[in-house]
Write a structure and sequence with these properties.
Layout: H1 3-24, E1 29-32, E2 38-41, H2 45-69, H3 75-106, H4 124-137, E3 145-147, H5 151-167, H6 171-177, H7 180-195, E4 199-201, H8 214-230, H9 234-253
Antiparallel strand pairs: 1-2, 3-4
Length: 254
């Protein structure tokens, strides 16, 4: 039975690898406008890659559930889970940010010739993810709470960006996603949140007590409401709410 959760974990890794392949195939087509600016068009492969990262997150949740169901947890499974998460929620989201930075620079005159050094900050995400997961594996105190933002949460936040840009009707939102300085700021903040020691809650229901599960219930209700009214934009909203709710209830407990 121990092999079953590991198969789910390998499926997580498979989806992450597919996401990376799709992202790297995302060619950028640039047409020069009369005023010298670049008009950018991209195939929808990055948006499809975001969905594969979402599938990886679903499978990542299920492998832990299946492991507990069959009482098949093991040190191998824990290490394998972290290795898969580095790819699905570290490398793949980092590649998304790399492509978004390329698009941001390409929208400027001669932007397609941007030096690679301006794009490399995107790789802070997989580096922070690897560091965070390695620290998690040697810290037994994170069974019922996290120190720093979990790697899957950070990965899903970044994976939502292409979908937000694709489906949003707001010029302000689209402009923000095409602004390289906004992207650089996002990279720094998300990387820091992963390696920080902020006390954040684990989304686990250990019993049926409403009082003990109140933070998770509040977050779940707000996530549903945000999804109904905001669509894909709900992902970053829920991400911020998750941090606020975690810190608020932690301070109340203290």
């Amino acid at each position: 039975m121990k092999i079953i959760p590991n198969l789910f974990t390998l499926l997580n890794l498979l989806f992450g690898c597919i996401a990376v392949i799709l992202i790297l195939q995302n060619g950028i087509v640039a047409l020069e406008a009369s005023d010298g600016t670049q008009l950018i068009d991209t195939p929808e492969r990055t948006q499809i890659a975001s969905l594969f990262i979402g599938l990886a997150a679903l499978v990542d949740f299920l492998d832990g559930l299946v492991a507990r169901l069959f009482k098949a947890t093991s040190p191998l499974g824990r290490e394998l889970d972290s290795l898969a998460d580095v790819v699905s929620f570290g490398v793949a989201p980092g590649m998304i940010l790399y492509q978004l930075l390329r698009m941001s620079w390409a929208a400027q005159p001669n932007g397609l010739d941007v030096a690679m050094g301006w794009l490399l900050p995107a790789l802070l995400i997989p580096c922070a993810a690897a560091y965070r997961l390695a620290r998690f594996n040697i810290d037994d105190a994170q069974q019922y709470g996290f120190k720093g933002v979990p790697t899957p949460a950070a990965g899903l936040l970044i994976a939502s960006l292409p979908l937000i840009g694709w489906y949003s009707h707001s010029d302000m939102v689209r402009a923000a996603l095409q602004n390289k300085w906004v992207l650089y700021g996002l990279i720094v903040v998300v990387a820091w949140l992963m390696i920080s020691r902020l006390p954040l809650m684990a989304l686990k229901f250990n019993n049926f007590s409403i009082r003990n599960n109140m933070p998770a219930i509040v977050l779940l209700v707000m996530a549903v409401i945000a999804a109904i009214f905001l669509g894909w934009l709900a992902v970053p909203v829920v991400f911020v709410v998750y941090i606020i709710v975690s810190l608020a209830f932690k301070n109340k407990e203290a």
